[in-house]
Amino acid sequence: MPRWTPKEEQKLRELVATGQSYRVIGAHLGRAGDTVFAKAKAMGLGPKPLTGERSPTWIAILRICADGIPRTVHELAMATGAARHTVECLFWERKKSKQAHVARWLAGHGAPVPYWLPVPGRSARRPSTLTPAEVSKRFRDRLRENDPIAYRAYLARATTRAALKAGKVKPQHAVVRALFGMGGTRT
Questions:
Q1: How many CA atoms are closer than 13 Å to the CA of 30, on its beta-carbon side?
Q2: Both 73 and 33 in a single domain?
Q3: Is residue 25 a part of any domain in this protein?
Q4: Helices then strands (H, E): number in the chain?
Q5: β-bridge partners, 116
Q6: Which of 17, 59, 178, 184 has its CA 20 to 30 A from that of 101?
Q7: Is residue 75 within 8 Å of 91, Cβ to Cβ?
């Protein structure tokens, strides 16, 4: 590798101050990210922190959420191009240091989903997870409103299953049992 020139070292100082990753800085300087990292460390610039205002992902999140609309980790990961895990870790770290909060929760079939804002504030309470009976009731209520015919069919199936389980179903006619091989007749 060619030696570093004073001009390249000055450019390295300037680029490290912008908070870009060493891989990106290396692309600007025509060198590998590991080489740039080693040189920055030797110059006393230190390792680039993954958190704080220097994080490109966090800066992008701040710009996206400048409109004050809370968003999910999934939405922010798609908008920034970062991994969902990275965005989620950034928010939980910022929540601990009171730099971010959960504006609201979306409760659905699974675990509640947080909607984040990257500003100080009081986090909304996490709703309790629904019991299977509550999930079933919500399903039935939605089905009754959206598709009454499917709801009646659902009730008929449930009633039949309950009757079968309780042993209250009348035996089939002998001809039906014979045609469909349901037992009870011998030839």
A1: 6
A2: no
A3: yes
A4: 9, 2
A5: 71, 102
A6: 17
A7: no
Q: Domain count of the chain?
A: 3
Does the residue 109 lie in any domain? Answer: yes
**Tens-binned pLDDT, residue by residue, of the chain (187 aa):** 688 899 988 988 888 877 777 888 888 888 888 888 888 888 887 665 444 466 788 888 999 999 999 999 999 999 988 899 989 989 998 999 899 999 999 887 678 899 999 999 999 999 887 788 888 898 999 999 999 999 999 999 898 888 878 888 777 788 887 888 766 545 4
Please classify residue 90 by burial: count the beta carbons closer than 10 Å to its beta carbon, then call 0-12 exposed, 13-18 middle and 19+ buried: buried
Residue with tokens 């809370």: 70
Check residue 98 and report its DSSP letter: T
DSSP E strands, 40-177? 101-106, 113-117
Q: What is the CATH number of the domain that holds 64?
A: 1.10.10.10
Query: DSSP assignment, residue 51?
Result: S
